[in-house]
Amino acid sequence: MRVGEQHYRSIWFDADEEVVKVIDQRWLPHAFRIEALRTLEDFATAIRDMWVRGAPLIGATAAWGLASEAARDASDAHLEQAADMLLATRPTAVNLRWAVERMLAALRDVPQQQRPEAARREAQAICDADVEMNAAIGEHGLKLIRELAATRPAGEPVRILTHCNAGWLATVDWGTATAPIYKAHDAGLDVMVWVDETRPRNQGAHLTAWELAGHGVEHRLIVDNAGGHLMQQGMVDMVIVGTDRTTACGDVANKIGTYLKALAAHDNGVPFYVALPSPTIDWTLCDGRDIPIEERDADEVRKVWGRLEDGKVVQAQICPDATPAANPAFDVTPARLVTGLITERGVCPATREGLRTLFADMQEVQGNG
Ligand code: MRU
């Protein structure tokens, strides 16, 4: 997507410098910084410490991490060790495992001296496919927004609530939850986005708001607790969120707080959609309660980042010194609360049958669901 006048992806291979580059998301929206990732430790740190984040981008970064390691030492032993290190960075987004397994599978039968080039091609293919899948999600989601637009009074926007950042920064480009929004905006439909701030790390306030503003999409930042009230007041026409892992039966793990939005949407008859590319489906699980939920550093809850009036970006503590905190980073929304899954192959019910209808081929290959 555009940043100013220039088009960016969230991750790319700089062929001139022979290095992988990412947008360092820790500093947005206050500063736009690009980082080069060189060593395996760089890639692992970038994922673990959330310079990059969002399920598809975590997978893409791990793929480039393996490609970059293959250029150093393409032996089976080294690649497997590198894969283990990357897999240990964040537990919930299944795209990480998917990308690492795809990279290792692509290199398995390739002679060692050809592996660096093959690995680079595969990582690039993963990134390009992500962009295509998200664009297709955008087209399918656009139809849903169009249908809602037809029910709105003339001149009134379709009001969409989203949680966390499932935007282009969370993917290689387009985003998942935001792709239909960008497509709708580009098609001239009137949309207005309620942006959950998404404590503790404020991905909504920091990233989604920045993205939407950059694309000229009307939006309003709300505190996480406002969604239920707005739905009760008839001020939300649909919810679209992303996901870090969706089971073969349609249970959805996403950023902490998503479940509460789904409950409120259900209670108020607001359609609740989840947008996802197929690498986010875990065909080996059915019950969402089996999804590993990342527990992050308590300081993310105890402190917030912000910009002072003098422009300095600082972290401030918001609780007494001795107060401990818990920080589960994701929750699981049961399939029964999900109106539909917006995938690159179309929209389906959040059920085993729904997913089977769209992805029979993948289910056979990857697991038994
Ligand atoms: O902790 P994060 O910022 O990596 O969490 C991101 C989310 O929860 C997104 O909604 C999810 O990864 C989908 S991204 C298209």
Tell me what the structure shows:
- There is one protein chain.
- With 369 residues, the protein is α/β, with parallel strands linked by helices.
- The chain has two domains: 2-128, Four Helix Bundle (Hemerythrin (Met), subunit A) (Up-down Bundle); 140-366, Rossmann fold.
- The chain is 40% helix and 19% strand.
- The chain contains eleven helices and 18 strands.
- The protein has helices at residues 40-48, 55-72, 76-87, 94-108, 115-149, 178-186, 203-215, 227-232, 258-268, 299-302, 352-366, and strands spanning 2-3, 6-7, 11-14, 19-23, 34-37, 158-162, 191-196, 218-222, 238-241, 245-247, 252-255, 272-275, 281-282, 303-307, 313-317, 330-333, 340-343, 346-348.
- The strands form five sheets. The protein has a seven-stranded mixed sheet with strand order 8-7-6-9-12-17-18, sandwiched between helices. A four-stranded mixed sheet has the order 13-10-11-16, covered by helices on one side. Strands 3-4-5 form a three-stranded antiparallel sheet.
- A hairpin with a 5-residue loop joins strand 14 and strand 15.
- The longest helix is centred in the middle third of the chain and has 35 residues, at 115-149.
- The protein starts with a strand and ends with a helix.
- 48% of the residues are buried.
